[in-house]
Amino acid sequence: MLDINIIREKPEWVKEQVAKRNDSAPIDEILAADARRREILHEVEELRRQRNESSKQIGRWLGSLKKMQASLRKAEAGQDVGTAVADLRAQLTELQANAEKAKNDTRAIGNRIAKLEEELRQVEAARHEHMRWVPNIPHESAPVGPDETHNIFHKAQGAPEPQFDFEPRPHWELGPELDIIDFERGVKLSGSRFYLLKGLGARMQHALIQFMLDFHTEQHGYTEVYPPFIVRSRCFEAAGQLPKFYDNIYRDAEEDFMLLGTAEIALTNVHRDEILDEADLPIKYVAYTPCFRREKMSAGKDVRGIKRGHQFDKVEMYQFVRPDKSYETIEQMKQHAIDICDALGFRYRLVDLCTGDIGFSMAKTYDIEIWAAGCQEWLEVSSISNAETFQARRANVKFRPTEGGKAQFVHTLNASGLALPRVMIGIIENYQQADGSVVVPEVLRPYMGGVAVIR
Fold first, then answer.
1. pLDDT per residue over 242-265, tens digit each?
2. Are 176 and 182 in contact (CB under 8 A)?
3. CA angle centred on 89, ends 85 and 95, rounded to 5°
4. Residue 427: pLDDT above 80?
5. What is the pLDDT of residue 304?
6. Separation CA 193–CA 225 (nearest Å)
7. What is residue 263's three-state secondary structure?
8. Helix (H) or strand (E) holding 350
9. Buried-exposed string 185-211: b where 16+ CB fall within 10 A, e elsewhere
10. Residues forming beta bridges with residue 38, ordered by sequence position
11. Which one of 98, 230, 440, 455 is least enclosed by Cβ atoms within 10 Å?
């Protein structure tokens, strides 16, 4: 979520930045609600001052009333004091009337405050709802463009492009022949975009997950986290998935539970409503989770094979860092993802996403794509993103500077490290042999009981 002060101070600039994302946001509605909120707060503050003053005045009058009543009782008990009694009675009547009027005025002020406080709740709720639809401001280094055609594709790196003395085949042919992927029974169980991994296919999937977790914890210094795969909707909101992507989320029909679309959602909320010590930063987590996405936004895309499914596995890196370190950190996390590509022997390329293709919560994003020789495609296996304070504001995650001072919001970053099943596609298609077998990358063999070839 953006800082409301930025919207107050530079509304036109914010609109320009949102437009760079080929998006829109209710900035004028936010400003109107915010202005009314401040008007109400000012009026309520003044009414409370009046009520307090009126209450003090009532107290003074009640004190005078008690003294006058005592004087009247003494006068009524004396001789030849008719005039004094009459005067005291008149003064007493006037004082009682003033006190009663003050009570009524105070009661009216209280009623007005109650109405304003109810309006304030409604205005704040409206402002919050509008704020939820404002995307992050893209970083100045992000290429400006309306859609993915304006992304910047960097020169391919890593292993040489695989060379074959035969026509390489796609994984949707090799997988069933090797009996490691079963499309028909996956569809029978759950419908389109589901499949079964069998035998050494299932074993390779688990081998990849464990290999990547071990690599990131041992080589890159991350702490492994095994989060719940079902979390409450507020976790999705904090990560920036709600309300924009509600239709893409699998959710419980009766309880406030949603299935993770990425471990990023859970990891964003690990330190929700906490103030961290600066000395503990950066905090580096890595997690494996299955990911569930309805894929409504990708209808008709990548329908063959296992490139895009409603359920897939992913290893995710996540960091909480000081604001001045986040753009140094995104480069480090990019390298951490590349290290996995290098270890698996992939040809890969870096993509610098333009403003129109960056995710809702992110200020800067790189993609890493690997070459798949069978389907002749570049496949995204990692997105590396910096959300700056956007997610931290929503989750209320701050750090306290070592030298003291006010707590500040952390910056949060995430990166796929890597995403399956496209890594599986890369192995099956790039390591295939003329007889239809697939060589297992050397780094995975210890995780597969020494299996070197899938036949």
1. 999 999 999 999 999 999 999 999
2. yes
3. 145
4. yes
5. 86
6. 28
7. helix
8. strand 347-352
9. ebeeeeeebbbbbbebbebbbebbbeb
10. none
11. 455
- What are the tokens at 218? 């041992």
Token pair recorded at residue 264: 């990023």
Name the residue with higher pLDDT: 66 or 438: 438
The tokens for 216 are 């990131």
Average pLDDT over residues 24-47: 96
Q: Measured between alpha carbons, how far is 406 from 20 in angstroms, rounded to an integer?
A: 33
Closest CA to 312 of 436, 455, 177, 208: 208
Long-range CB pairs of 25-34 (<8 Å, 24+ gap) are 25/133, 25/134, 25/135, 26/130, 26/133, 26/134, 27/134, 29/126, 29/130, 30/4, 30/127, 30/130, 30/131, 30/134, 31/7, 33/123, 33/124, 33/126, 33/127, 33/130, 34/4, 34/7, 34/8, 34/127
Residue 76's pLDDT band (boundaries 50, 70, 90)?
low
Instruction: Tell me which amino acid residue 129 is.
Output: E
pLDDT of 11 higher than 50:
yes
Over residues 9-28, the mean pLDDT reads 96
pLDDT at 300 over 60: no
Structure tokens at 30: 């936010």
d(CA 323, CA 288) in angstroms, rounded, equals 26
Q: How far is CA 372 from CA 120, 191, 301, 340, in A?
A: 56, 26, 17, 16
Q: Is the pLDDT of residue 79 over 50?
A: no
For 145, the token pair is 């463009």
Residues 6+ apart with CB under 8 A from 196: 181, 182, 183, 185, 186, 189
Identity of the residue numbered 34: D
The count of other CB atoms within 10 Å of the CB of residue 427 is 25
